[in-house]
Amino acid sequence: MGTYQKHPERITCLSYWQTKIPTFFISGGQRQAKLSIYQYALYVRKSKMGVNFPLSQTQVFLQAKGRIFEHMACETLLFDVPNPATRDFFKPGEEYVEFSTPDDFVEKVNYYLKHEDERKAIAERGSNAFYAKYSGKIFWDKLMNRIEGEQHD
Fold this sequence. Notes:
By secondary structure, the protein is mainly α.
């Protein structure tokens, strides 16, 4: 789910994965497929797994996209390349799964499709980490505490 038409590297991976993983679903997300926020969230919630493409639009650096938080919030197993930006928020191998090549991704997806308990456990740990550290309540509490602290200085 997400924009891929403007990203040839995404199209190449997605097309390849679709030939290797029979249940692999591709959608253009909110902008490309004109999904409403509700429809987009519903797709993510119903997905067992999702993949992050962290390369910036300039293709210069890896970044933490909102997608990592969306998947964690929905208890969807997240796959990402070795990405320092995602590692700043979540623990690879514990809260999400890293992959290094398109074939590595295929192997890991097939593994977690066969090992549902392991997939669910990692996705649950990721979701728990998200809600413990980054939920809306946590964000607003931190922001309000910071504002209140600045007012008293």
